[in-house]
Amino acid sequence: MEKVRRLIFILLLVGICSPALGEKWTASVVKSLEAVVGSCVVLPCSFNYPGTLLPTSRLRGIWHLSKEDTKIVYSEDNTKVLDSFKGRTNMLGKLGDKNCTLEITDVKDHDNGPFCFRIELVKTHDNKETTEKYSFVDECAELKMQRDPPEPELFQSNTAVQGKPYAVTCSVRHTCPSHVPVFTWSRGSKDDVIHIQKPVLSGIWETQSIMVFIPEEKDDHTQITCTAAFNGGKVKSRSIQLNVKRIGNIYHIIIPVAVAIGTAVIFGVICIAVMKKYKLSRMS
Ligand SMILES: *[C@@H]1O[C@H](CO)[C@@H](O)[C@H](O)[C@H]1NC(C)=O
């Protein structure tokens, strides 16, 4: 019993102290992400450091190529950035929120990385400024280059019925949430379209365009095309054929059925009349 009590006491102590122990130099970066050449890519990143929380003005975030922290791809001080990355990198994350998300625009096919984050904490002690630095070289992001963006996918709802609202969804996955693909449709107006943006996996996003319209008889056997224009100018499209069920068809069914029932009733009445007459003539 004494042992159990002691164990509980130790566990409680660890529980109380763990927030303080938990403050370490850590970073969470997506290790591998696809990027389309010519487009943009956003590398999600968050980090932590020991000690008290510092405002953005006391933090300097740097992205560099792996192992070589002199090869800087992002720094607030643009003069330190490699020429091949100048003007193409952006810190989207707020460092004060421990967010180090990086955007690379106009992706080149040699931008494969690995990209590593470094944080510098600027502290003042007795009017003296000191800097603590940490490079998270075990948490670097690599990019897999894609020559072309993927083709969008098209999904249809049930069956298109003449005169009833009908939806077609066009969807594409990408890694550039700061400049999402722009969709256009071969029919309908912009008011008929709903846009949805949702995260799929860390760093991967899905953008959807849902077109709702009312099909008419003349839309049967026509094509509907969705075109996705990606950041950087590349364009991909996909088409499907519409099959519209006509409301008019229902009268083609009702009329013959009514005629058949009518005929049967008349025939039945005649039959009964004939039978009755036959019975009467036999009885007399
Ligand atoms: C980090 O910043 C990016 C860009 O502003 C944002 O999209 C993302 O949600 C942030 N991440 C967290 C964990 O807050």
Automatic annotation (TrEMBL):
<feature type="signal peptide">
    <location>
        <begin position="1"/>
        <end position="22"/>
    </location>
</feature>
<dbReference type="InterPro" id="IPR036179">
    <property type="entry name" value="Ig-like_dom_sf"/>
</dbReference>
<protein>
    <recommendedName>
        <fullName>Ig-like domain-containing protein</fullName>
    </recommendedName>
</protein>
<keyword id="KW-1133">Transmembrane helix</keyword>
<dbReference type="InterPro" id="IPR013783">
    <property type="entry name" value="Ig-like_fold"/>
</dbReference>
<dbReference type="InterPro" id="IPR007110">
    <property type="entry name" value="Ig-like_dom"/>
</dbReference>
<dbReference type="InterPro" id="IPR003599">
    <property type="entry name" value="Ig_sub"/>
</dbReference>
<keyword id="KW-0812">Transmembrane</keyword>
<feature type="domain" description="Ig-like">
    <location>
        <begin position="152"/>
        <end position="241"/>
    </location>
</feature>
<keyword id="KW-0732">Signal</keyword>
<feature type="transmembrane region" description="Helical">
    <location>
        <begin position="250"/>
        <end position="275"/>
    </location>
</feature>
<keyword id="KW-0472">Membrane</keyword>
